[in-house]
Amino acid sequence: MNLEFTPEEVAFRKEVREFIENNYPEQLRGVGAREDLGKEDMLAWHQILGKKGWSVPAWPEKYGGTGWTPTQKYIWSEENARMDTIMPLPFGVSMVGPVIYTFGSEEMKAKHLPGIRDGSVWWCQGYSEPGAGSDLASLKTTAVRDGDHYVINGQKTWTTLAQHADWGFFLCRTDPNAAKPQEGISFILADMNTPGIEVKPIKTIDGGHEVNETWLTDVRVPVENLVGKENEGWTYAKFLLAHERSGIAGVARSKRGVEKLRQIASTELLEGKPLINDDDFLRKVSQLEIDLTALEFTELRTLAGEAQGKGPGPESSILKVKGTEIQQRLTELTLEAVGHYGHPYFRGFPEDGSNEFPIGPDYAHQAAPSYFNMRKTSIYGGSNEIQRNIITKMILGL
Amino acid sequence: MDFNFSDEQTMIRDSLARLLRDQYDFDTRRKVVSSESGWRPEMWQQFAELGLLAAPFSEEDGGLGGGSIDSMVIMEEFGKALVVEPYVPTIVCAGGFLKHAGTPEQKSEHLEAIIGGERVFAFAYAEPRGRYDLNDLETTAKKDGDAYTLNGHKAVVVGAPWASHLIVTARTSGDRRDKDGISVFIVEKDAKGVTTRDYPTVDGRRASEVYFENVSVPAGNLIGEEGKALPLIERIVDEATVAICAEAMGAMGVAHKQTVEYSKQRKQFGIAIGKFQVLQHRMVDMFMEHEQSISMTYMATLKLDEDEVTRKKAVSAAKVRIGQGGRFVGQEAIQIHGGMGMTDELAVGHYFKRLTMIDSEYGNVDYHMRRYSRLSGDDQAMAAE
After folding, report:
1. A268, A260 in Cβ contact below 8 A?
2. Could B280 and A300 be called an inter-chain contact, meaning their C-beta atoms sit closer than 8 Å?
3. For the Acyl-CoA dehydrogenase/oxidase C-terminal domain, which residue ranges apply (chain B) (predicted)?
4. Tens digit of pLDDT for each residue in B56-69?
5. Which residues in chain B are closer than 8 Å to A301, comparing Cβ atoms?
6. From the CA of B262, how many Å to the nearest CA of chain A?
7. B5-9, long-range: CB < 8 A, 24+ apart
8. ipTM field
């Protein structure tokens, strides 16, 4: 047991840091969040990484993965967090990509993996429905075989950033008479330009437009868009969720967030002295940092296990629960730190993108929206209660 | 980065686990802790034969060439079986002082006897008014020719009834709370002027109040430099803190496992209570606390040899999480066991008691949270300069 970095790992960190510093787009530096960015900006870093061969580090090398060790991946995420980079979106890279290379046909791999790698194709996720949230298997969207096509009808919801999407992956019911709800589901890909797909925005409590309703009316997709076998989509869906969870802890980003919180609290004053010197406030920051250390070393242990061929198993549920709790507490404390200047609402005022009328310090502008927005994290990806159900069943055996 | 145990460490764990399973079952332990002596010197001898007492010492010092990771492995197993024998005071504390600062004479006088299991130490550092501050000392040691004269009162010296020797912290100069002027001595318990009041502790161990009245200690028994011992004491206490964190992670794992098992057996309203989601989620939270305690104990153990600020922050962070996690796991274990959890006959209550006492040993959650916060401030100030 040791925590040392090898000379090769130190050299790797240097290489990565220099690459990010030399290649990260100027216009995105200091932006921090993807909030309100356009499609091109959101894809910019992904496309640069695609050219470098670093856009899908976790994939098997034969599909374009980097073959990095867990320690190298840890260094990679730390260095990206250091520069607040806008990372590739998960829907292609971490979700549908692994499903396609694991369960898809050779033709499907050849057609879709390159676009995910190079960041030219934007994917969205059609899982949840108005009546199927945590109980995902109760989904009602149907796909009916008609010659060489499936005809899809139904409604998906919470389709994140579908307004930009080129392709979507949808869970659809192909056997309404299956014995168990999980058994009649298929995993189908669809070009978002297919007639019958309609995306409608959902405005969320932070004022943003991140998620959508996606309506599917007599959408005809070719049968070759079926992933794997008909009626076995639930297996692929669960596989995807386990992959999604393993990256969800967000340790490096939260560490960076604590640094920023400390800076804010060193600027804000309480009784004429920096807020960070207040015992009550400092204690909350310390507790957060200590809990983050516990998460970090739990993730490192998990990664070490994965390198030896274990997982990602149900232990990744711990990372999801604790990681999201910490992200939420971080935004909560940041909002607390900015005091009065958490109140002003800037979206569309005086007009989007305008900076001529600054109110309060810059660091306060996103404090409340971020806090409101991050409440989603304990709900998505399988709510934190669902994660506890998974541990109950898979680890405690209850 | 590497989280694997060496073959030697795995071997120590396996052979110790076997010994404890065969000879340290819960009923045997109950009889031992309520016996007159409260421990088993013959068990200590078996620990010596297994090499546990030699594990963390260098080969030069007569040990097996291991270190803190070996102690962690051993302490986790001790935590699983609620072992009461004085490994931390003798091996981690006294052994640590000798290892880090002992003279060749002191090492040859004591280390062989410690490693062989013939000599047991206790660590007398706490005082009635000092709480967890290692520098808050009213015990004095005055230089008098070739000897020091000790006067004072040490509180709750764990393992002292079984010890022949004490490691004592005392003030050789300065005022009560000064950081300077602190020294460390080896004191034979039967030295003239040492008196003790022995008693059991709530978690099944034994301790003493130790009084020093004009006790003459040869100058050769001073460990390290006179008046400059605080950094050394802090280091040893950090090592001991991490050792009991490992003990806590062992105890937490068992308390959790026993609770899950009980919830499968115990039926109410016609079904096993483990089928109730409200209890399932609490047992998952216990599981997560235990996992994070393992992570924090590894983290702190691996950072013991880093610079002082890094080490102290790591140890305090671990002790905060273990204090909080231990309380949560212990309290929930009792609650989910229901009335049976309140009985002395079930092991789970004994795990709860040990976990509770671990929080207030070597500084509780509040103490370590404060130490962590202050060190973070120092960190920030250093980074700003």
Report:
1. no
2. no
3. 239-358
4. 999 999 999 999 99
5. 3, 294-295, 298
6. 11
7. B5/A1, B5/B69, B5/B73, B6/A1, B8/B64, B8/B66, B8/B70, B9/B66, B9/B69, B9/B70, B9/B73
8. 0.94
Question: Where are chain A's structural domains?
Answer: 7-88, 123-232, 247-396
Give the minimum alpha-carbon distance from B302 to chain A in angstroms, rounded to a whole number.
6
Q: What is the fold, at CATH topology level, of the domain defined by A123-232? A: Butyryl-CoA Dehydrogenase, subunit A; domain 2 (2.40.110)
Q: What does the pLDDT read at residue B385?
A: 46
**Cα–Cα distance, A107 to A104 (Å, whole number):** 8
pTM for the predicted model, two decimal places: 0.94
Tell me, letter by letter, the H, E, C secondary structure of chain A: CECCCCHHHHHHHHHHHHHHHHHCCHHHCCCCCCCCCCHHHHHHHHHHHHHHCCCCCCCCHHHCCCCCCHHHHHHHHHHHHHCCCCCCCHHHHHHHHHHHHHHCCHHHHHHHHHHHHHCCCCEEEECCECCECCCHHHCCCEEEEECCEEEEEEEEECCCCHHHCCEEEEEEECCCCCCCHHHHEEEEEEECCCCCEEEEEECCCCCCCCEEEEEEEEEEEEHHHECCCCCEHHHHHHHHHHHHHHCCCCHHHHHHHHHHHHHHHHHCEECCEEHHHCHHHHHHHHHHHHHHHHHHHHHHHHHHHHHCCCCCCCCHHHHHHHHHHHHHHHHHHHHHHHHHHHCCCCCCCCCCCCCCCCCCCHHHCCHHHHHHHHHHHHCCCCCHHHHHHHHHHHHHCC
Q: Do A287 and B303 make contact, defined as CB atoms within 8 angstroms? A: no
Of A279, A290, A395, the CB nearest to B372: A290
- Tell me what the pLDDT averaged over chain B comes to: 96
Given CB atoms, is A307 within the 8 Å cutoff of chain B? no
Superfamily grouping for domain A247-396: Butyryl-CoA Dehydrogenase, subunit A, domain 3 (1.20.140.10)
Query: What is the reported pLDDT for A32?
Result: 65
Q: Give the distance from CA A313 to its chain's centroid.
A: 18
Q: Do domains A123-232 and A247-396 have the same CATH topology?
A: no
Active site amino acids of A:
244
Q: Once rounded to an integer, what is the mean pLDDT over residues A376-390?
A: 93
Query: Is it true that the peptide bond before A350 is cis, omega within 30 degrees of 0?
Result: yes
Domains defined along chain B, listed by start: 7-119 (1.10.540.10), 122-227 (2.40.110.10), 231-380 (1.20.140.10)
